[in-house]
Amino acid sequence: MEHLPLQTQTAYAELLDLLTAIEARREIGHTGGSFVHKTVKGQEYYYHQHAEPGGIVQRYVGQRTPILDQVVVRFIEGRSQVRAERRVSNRLCSVLRAGGALAIDTAALRVLSALADAAVFRLGGVLVGTYALITLGNALGVRWDSATLRSEDLDIASQRALAVAVPRLRADVPGILDSLEMGFLPVPGLSPRDPSTSFKVRGRALRVDLLTPQRRGAQKPVMIPRFATAAQPLPHLDYLIEETSTTVAIGATAVLVTVPLPGRYALHKLVTMHARSASLQAKSHKDLHQAAQVIEFLAEERPGDLRQAWEDLVRRRWKKAIRPGLESLKRRFPDAHAALKREIA
Question: Residue 240 contacts by C-beta under 8 Å, 6 or more apart in sequence?
């Protein structure tokens, strides 16, 4: 684990500000496709066309009028601004990669970009797992040990329903993945009657898993209507995604994503690592190593984050649940264990 240079941290802050501003004023210029007009029996009509799997699709907009002309002009001008902002964003990504920031592989970043464009994160989706840790490292200005960052699983968690009123938006996750034409297929569940909660690329390890907090021990997949798919219930997940932050996933381009707070990420790993089956012990070791790195960094740089995360965990009466993880941390990473005990004493 090492700190990123100040120049790299500054570039990250600039990129986050830029993407946040773009997202706040997202408008017609971010719409895909283009407008075309046709003349039919002397009358001009506007159509919007875009590419879908199988070819170009055109949809009727309306008869050409001065108002629609203004919409098209605004669309063209907006697209020009979007391209200019994207060039700045891509330049900052290059600076960040050169400065040691952790990059996400091209395939995973492409999936995250499609999910973000479809409003998955605005609709309560939270990126969890190793890819979330990668983005948290850049946000915190630290480069984690790369041995703990190998993953082909993109885990998206969400509550079953949003706690706040939002417009009736919908993000068709299976449709989004299919539109990428990467070969995503639904992974059959344990029971043929259960809907799939995972999608995997044919012939590759890349996989997207949908998760949701478990209620009353129920283990069957739960439908998430706003995502048009089911999610697998997991215990303790509500603690992880209750409070979140916005970070940037960096590669050749950049994508705004929602992730858990780092303190909760670390303690959640300690709670859940011993729940893995014996066949997944390698992942348990990775969970412990990830937790140790985050704890050591936060204890040094942001101790308040650990105290808050611990208090929230204790409030849920989970001290017994985290005890095996703490014992493992003490055996394998005594410095991290001592740092955590010091901060929560």
Answer: 126, 128, 157, 260, 264, 265, 268
